[in-house]
Write a structure and sequence with these properties.
The chain has 308 residues and is mainly alpha-helical. The chain has a domain at 8-47 and 64-215 and 231-244: Ribonucleotide Reductase, subunit A. The protein has helices at 8-31, 67-81, 83-94, 98-125, 130-143, 153-178, 181-211, 213-226, 237-247, 252-267, 277-307. Helix 2 (67-81) crosses helix 9, helix 3 runs antiparallel to helix 4 and helix 4 (98-125) runs antiparallel to helix 7. It is globular and about 70 Å long. Belongs to the fatty acid desaturase type 2 family. This is Acyl-ACP desaturase. Pfam families: FA_desaturase_2. Its cofactor is Fe(2+).
């Protein structure tokens, strides 16, 4: 079952890709390493809060976490919080039947534990204000999320591939600066999930590149030009994203050198032969976008270095 806004051609493409999805699912289930959020939360550090249990209210000095780590975790937690909307978006795009439907549900199962684990860790360690976190969660979910590429299967597939890679890298970099072994262990487990999700989507994108090379290159150019965090509508997003850039968790340098450029190399976009006129035009646009992304990364790196 596919949403009516998906074009007929894309419904056909989803059908052609289904055997690849089934094989990728088999690989995913063979390599999946389930884990339990409660095992990565230092519950012994916890104590009651104010309110019904008449405990101690939260205060900023209670948490020992560096502000850069806290900001990055709050951004990623807000990203994870919107899972109900993400599930709806990919179910509408990829469908709820067959291998695609199995993947949509399995992905949701695995993503659901990330927000649970991060929130429990922050609440138990008193590293962040639980009232502010809940207020932000409520506002963000009430706003919801919709894809910038609604109805475009290939652009959606490109986006989720890039986004899963970006998320994996951000968790790896938060782990690097966290300085706390339990937090680092939790982030390692989440990053492993995100990496497997990226590998799944990238495998499907590789197949799409063979089946529809010109349309896939166009989709790559479209998403490269418009990519943004799924948490872009979250409360305090501009400040949190700037903090992540300054701390090196996720900056223009990260986006270009560790997300865009590696995916383009892996797909062999600029080495492919046999593209028609539309494909060549899209590749030219993509080349311009990649040069602009590289220039932005250089400017950001130069600004950071001059500020040190």
């Amino acid at each position: 079952m596919h949403a009516p806004e998906v074009e007929r051609e894309d419904v056909g493409l989803l059908t052609e890709l289904e055997p690849v999805v089934a094989r990728a699912l088999d690989t995913h289930f063979e390599t999946a390493d389930d884990w339990y959020p409660h095992q990565f939360v230092p519950w012994a550090m916890g104590r009651n809060y104010e309110g019904f249990l008449e405990g101690e209210p939260w205060a900023p000095e209670q948490g020992a976490m560096e502000s850069a780590v806290r900001d990055a975790l709050l951004h990623n937690l807000l990203s994870e919080d919107n899972l109900p909307s993400y599930h709806r978006v990919i179910a509408e795009l990829f469908g709820r039947d067959g291998a695609w439907g199995t993947w949509v549900n399995r992905w949701t199962v695995e993503e659901d534990r990330h927000g649970t684990a991060i929130r429990d860790y922050l609440v138990v360690t008193r590293a962040a204000d639980p009232v502010a976190m809940e207020d932000a969660r409520r506002l963000h979910l009430q706003t919801g999320y919709d894809s910038d590429y609604r109805g475009d299967v290939l652009a959606g597939l490109v986006y989720v591939t890039l986004q899963e890679l970006a998320t994996r890298i951000s968790y790896r970099n938060i782990k690097r600066i966290s300085g706390e072994p339990v937090c680092a262990a939790l982030l390692q487990r989440i990053a492993q999930d995100e990496n497997r999700h990226m590998l799944f989507y990238r495998r499907i994108l590789e197949a799409a590149m063979e089946l529809r090379p010109e349309r896939t290159v166009r989709a790559l150019a479209t998403v490269a030009a418009t990519f943004r965090s799924p948490a872009h509508g979250a409360p305090d997003f501009p400040r949190l994203s700037m903090s992540m850039a300054r701390s090196g968790v996720y900056s223009p340098v990260t986006h270009h050198t560790e997300v865009l450029a590696p995916v383009m190399r892996h797909l062999g976009v600029f080495d492919r032969t046999g593209l028609g006129a539309e494909g060549e035009e899209a590749r030219d646009r993509l080349a311009v976008l990649m040069r602009a992304s590289e220039a932005q990364a250089r400017r950001f790196a130069g600004h950071v270095n001059s500020a040190l």
